[in-house]
Amino acid sequence: MTGVIFAGGPILSMDASDTRPEAVAIRGDRIVATGSLEALRRSLPEAVQHDLVGRTLLPAFIDPHGHFPDSAMVRLLRADLSESVDLAEVFHRLAARVARTPVGDWVMGAALDESRLAERRLPTRDELDTVSRDHPIWVIHASGHCGVANSAALARQGIGEGTPDPEGGRYLRDGSGRLAGGIEGLSAMGEMGDTHFLLDADAFARSFAAARAEYLAQGVTLAQNAWTALPLLELFAGVAAGGDPGIDLILLPVAEIEPAFSREGLGAQWPGNGAIALGPRKLLADGSFLMRTALLTEPYLGSDEYGLAYIDRDTLMAEVCRLHRLGFQTHTHCNGDAASDMFLDAVAAALAEHPRADHRHTIIHGQVMRRDQLTRCAALGVTVSFFPAHVEVWGDQHHDEILGPARAVHISPTGWAKAEGVRFTIHNDASVTPTRPLRLVETTVNRRSRSGRVLGLEQRVDVMTALRAHTIDAAWQVFREHERGSIEVGKLADLVILDDNPLEQPETIGAIGVSETWRRGERVYLCHRPKVGEPA
């Protein structure tokens, strides 16, 4: 085991002192030395030198919130509607899937964003019926919080004209009161809203392999599945039992499946695999901004609607207290500020009942958190994982249609979080938006929407802060800072080599290419891009 020495380009360690060593040495799966190239050559005379050739070395990126391997499922198992420009194309893509699906079997479309369609609306039940009446068709929205079903799908799920809306969800109806096919909220979608819907072991294995390749190509070596219901947990357990999966994973079991009186609970049954581990327990407090179901304290622009609570206040309080008492960390989806208020109240109550230092309970998304809420987070020890991709992808909608200018400029308020001393991370929530760490860092730094509008100068942060939010702070948020997230002796040799230095081109960070990804001391991704004058 001779080891490898990296040198010849900028090295951003992401350690607490922002150290910029000249060289880094790894042996086996660990970082064994940092410092001058001369010193490392003396201490490791047999090590192979890996010349960075001016490229930049960082710790590998960490996904703080996503749904691995859902991005691959969209491509491999469903009709991918993410690039559709109008409803005609949506129906064409669904029909192509119908043509190769046995009669009576499900056809699922995924990642549909009506804001990209010429019609600016979702399809209806009747329109999906024209694609097929012989197949149940379910089209899930890019947000994952709503979808549209045809008549066969409604019948298959037992949803009829007289079916009442469940708590935290609703069945949309036309002007005559007839079911229109639209379904909002996880409680209403039922199994159709689950990541494992229509999934078997073979399909899961293919999706896993494809998603792994995608993530490693983006420099991500620790991924996350942030809504792991029991059937999906069982599929992951099968992978965990088979040895090294080629990427590290943190799974967030759905809170309700954690046994109430067992501290070990699910963990006692989990296969011993250091690469795939159970993490925080997951709760959902509200819905999505794109569907106007995120729960707000002020109504949506031009309406008297405040959104939709997925869980009532008392139940959320009880669940947070239960999980806190059992010793777990919680990650709770809170898009709207009213949802964040409920969660912060729940954490305060849990801490009053069972004081516990350094719990790191986390708000997921926190899209319109107010500054007073971030002040409260700091006091309670609550951390946040923001979703700044919304600024780029849907920022113009927030500004013009959903929230209005005054609130839109403060979505994903990373600037306030930093000012208030709240340690935070940034995420893509794949497959809602693709896992693209450098593009996400660029958006966090510059806050430009698709139209080029800058949303909130006050919320901008510097490049290093944004990079840390996707490396060491992401490790810290899930109690992994002792083993990864920075280039320090003793940590895992998980590294990414970038074509250029993000610190030197803050306006175009997203255009920087990932050249190599190293995981546990082995190179797992290599992309050769010819330099100027170099033959292709």
Automatic annotation (TrEMBL):
Metal-binding is among the record's keywords: yes
SUPFAM superfamilies: Composite domain of metallo-dependent hydrolases, Metallo-dependent hydrolases
Domain annotation Aminodeoxyfutalosine deaminase/Imidazolonepropionase-like composite: ranges: 23-47
Domain of life: Bacteria
InterPro entries found in the cross-reference section: Amidohydro_3 (IPR013108), Metal-dep_hydrolase_composite (IPR011059), Metal_Hydrolase (IPR032466), MQNX/HUTI_composite_N (IPR054418), YtcJ-like (IPR033932)
Pfam family, one: Amidohydro_3
Protein name per UniProt: Amidohydrolase
Organism in which the protein naturally occurs: Ruegeria marisflavi
